Please model this.
Amino acid sequence: MFKSYLKTAFRNLFRNKLFSGLNIFGLATGMACSILIFLWVQDELGYDRFNTNAKHIYRLTARVGDIAAAVVPVPAAMAIREAVPGVKNTTRLAALQSMVTVNNQKYEEKNIYYADSNFLRIFDYPLLLGDASSLLSRPDGVVLTASSAKKYFGSPENAMGKTLHIDNDYNGNNLLVTGILKDIPRNSHLQFDMLLPIQLYERTINLEQGWGNFDVYTYLLMDDHFSGTPAALASLQQQIQALYRRLDITKTNGFLYVQPLKDVHLRSRLMLDVAGQGNYQQVKIFSLIAVFILLIAGINFMNLSTALSGQRAKEVGMRKTVGALRSQLIIQFLSEALLLSFISLIIGLVIAWALIPLFNQLAAKSISINLLNIKFMAGLLGIAIGVGLRSGSYPALFLSSFNPVKVLKGVKMLHGRKTFFRNSLIIVQFSIAVILIVSTIVVYKQLHFIRTMDIGYNKENLLYVPIPRLGDLQRNQVALKAVMSQYPEIDDYTFISHLPTDLPTGTRSVEWEGKDPQANLVFPQMWVDDHFVHTFRMQLKAGRFFSKDFKGDENNYVLNETAIKAMKLNAETALGTRITMDSRTGIVIGIVKDFNFKPVQQPIQPLIIRNGSSGNFNGNTGYIVQRTTAANMQQSLATMKKVFQQVYTDFPFSFGFVNEDLSRLYLAEQRMGKLFNIFSVLSVMVSCLGLFGLATFATQKRIKEIGVRKVLGASVAGIVGMLSKDFLKLVVFALLIAFPVAWWVMNKWLQNFAYHISIRWWFFALAGVIAIVISFITVGYQSIKAARSNPVKSLRTE
Model:
């Protein structure tokens, strides 16, 4: 019996080669796209799950005023471990960027953490070499990853017991390699090349002011009895907050929160967070796109299957006449649909496998298809079975219910119901496609807006060179200025403490005349010299900037417009206002026009600009920023390298460009835009495949009608219009459904940006024109072909 079903299925497959090909290719394309997206989603959702204690690890975060941060006060971990029930252990990390010297070879490293000695007992980062019980306990020890050990010493085995020098403070430290870890898993939110003992960090800070120093990442390991429910988390946060209020001698008035480890990668939009964080909304959007594409492909499959099923009414009548049971007919139609679905799945897997390298390049991932993964394969088989059963159910249930006598007499069965069903599916299909077209337009315009918006300064051709943390920072800066003065071509430059791209600093220690005692403002701050405004081409709204002509400027301040508003002042009253910061009192001498010093997802915050013309950046190393031109870029680089190497003879020269740094802040959005464009085009293409198949089928059914009309004098344009209008009506109806849904979805997405575009009417008009034109081309091809055919051939059998 099964052999008969299979033979009939293949016979029908080859009998309708065009429609079978469209069915299989459309569904295979949809499955391939969905497989790639679901692999990406699975990778994003799988971050940090490799940790044995993942369900019991929580990260502590903070909020002070309007600023939410991933770092918390230094003493919080120890205090919580000792005083809060249910907390089994705590560990801390502090980030560091430093120069590492090995055998007189210098390396600039950006992924270093100071870590508590229990860090590797809470997190599962496998150890290759070393004693796990003593790692990070020695104040002069260091733990490397396998890649770092290979880079420095040739191999992990050679690295053990060797010494390296790290410039983490004024004098630097010689450290002994005591352990080698396997390279950090790609799906860990913490990525590092080296771990230093936390004691080295504690030497560099004032522990007495620790509760006001938000500088460390802190993790809690809860005991096995902690449930992790919302109520349990709320209770834990209340206990931690009460403890913080009691112990905080700095009266920072902040708030501490608990974040599950599994949420860190996707649900963190925090200041001073680790690099490479994901976005949960993007995961939801791409999951929805995968479902949409699969739905479009499934609708194609179902539409063509139901369209072709009508041609088999007489076959059903004959089978019933010779004794076939309805259950047998249902099995027959379902097995044919399942066969097509499984063929599509196999081809879809091949397409996805071929596209994996390109997809990884676009998405910056390293995902792969693992056919031995039971969950993955079960999901794919479930999709194939679901699509097959769904598409085969209509012909199976309805055709098997036909009265054989009526069918064999030529009476049409369920014609109107079937047409209505197919039309409804076309409307749903094109509604989804139009939603994706509108979304693509909005995403493109928002990303273009980010690239071209006025951020308050001219970001082009700004070359910067990081100043190394070596020796007397202030004296080194003076030396750099002296050498630069010898090169007339370096005439437009500034020294600054931080780049205005993603400013990490913030302080509450700001007092001014008339300050509201209840105010809890956090002010980002940066130290600059007197050339800052000119080099960055910023605009002063009032007053003046720092100048060597005014000796008292060393203690004075310049504020941005947002700071003036936050302090409840105006341009007139702000100038001359006395401000005290870090026991230094000065006056506001100028107001600079607001400029973005953080990603545009975040609103501009109140900023205090401090005078660092003397070379004192409060312990920050800083940057030299030179404005150059595109034509002179290479010459400027060569000259700056000469200057740098005259002062820092043994250090490698590094540089960057401000506009490139800004672009890197939006890499995730740019990747999303590219993938969105690709999948939107594919969804429209799959929709058109189905429309093409239905148009071909409809034209074939009316071929004799077209012949008669041509004989009676109908024009080609008239026949094309007759055949196209029914499909175009469905597309227009789909537009009316898609437009409000697309507006709502994209309006929600835009709310993630503090600065964003408005959704314009022409976005919808353009999407509508694209949908109608594509539909007309798809349907029109078959219509024109039919309208230009010789009527004699179509009427010959009459």
